[in-house]
């Protein structure tokens, strides 16, 4: 008599198990340790996607934990909030924690382009943060808040900040911009300029004219040629190109 035996059920001949087929994925990762390497190189790793989370950051963590503890990268929140894990994945600047692993082909992972590399996938963000600091990203006003607690803002004025305040300073936009590649020592780049616009648009800020004056030279903002790589690559779906265009419009008024 034939008996149907299901996986995990015990039969007269023992337990029947169906072995899952390994789903091997290759990752070609940029490696460079300035303390021992004379030049960068790529190293390929293989992992089983059946035993890995769905995002590229999951794969990187798995490789570091199980295969190569020397692999270096930044990461923190794993939720697309901190901006730490920004890198170039298959030719696109994005966040590793938001980039889903594609099953077809080999994934190629590089640090953000046109930045000095500290080690492996870790770029030197010093210049980027200095540029952000230069636009003075904080409220500047001599007004005393009503009741001494906070500066009130109407819902309509608050809405003007949407699409700019959400920036997480991951630098994906700036490092995707050819103008920034060529003039990063003088051109502030999409991220810093969008934040400059964010404070210019804030109804509570009283330093708008001075903010404008700082951008009137030929490099700080006008190196933007509306290529729009910044908007295409932003992992948060923001539009730095539009913010820069609004600054140009204000300065031309």
If you had to describe this structure to a student in words, what would you say it looks like?
A hairpin with a 2-residue loop joins strand 5 and strand 6. It is built from eight helices and nine strands. With 253 residues, the chain is α+β, with helices and mostly antiparallel strands.
Order of helices and strands: EEEEHEEEEEHHHHHHH
Largest sheet: 5 strands, mixed
Query: Percent helix among the residues?
Result: 25-40%
The total count of strands amounts to 9
Distance between the termini: 91 Å
With strands numbered from the N-terminus, the spatial order across the biggest sheet is 4-3-7-5-6
- Outline, from the CA principal axes? elongated
pLDDT under 50 segments (min length 5)? Answer: 1-13
**Helical stretch count?**
8
Percent of residues in beta strands: 5-15%
Which structural category do the helix and sheet elements fall into?
Answer: alpha+beta
What is the mean pLDDT? 92
Radius of gyration over alpha carbons? 24 Å
Any chance you could write out the topology, listing elements then pairs?
Elements: E1 10-11, E2 14-15, E3 24-31, E4 41-48, H1 56-66, E5 86-89, E6 92-95, E7 107-110, E8 117-119, E9 122-123, H2 126-134, H3 155-159, H4 178-183, H5 189-200, H6 208-213, H7 229-233, H8 240-252
Parallel strand pairs: 3-7
Antiparallel strand pairs: 1-2, 3-4, 5-6, 5-7, 8-9
Helix pairs in contact: 2-5, 5-8
Task: Name the features.
two-stranded antiparallel ribbon; alpha+beta; 253 residues; disordered N terminus; single chain; five-stranded mixed sheet
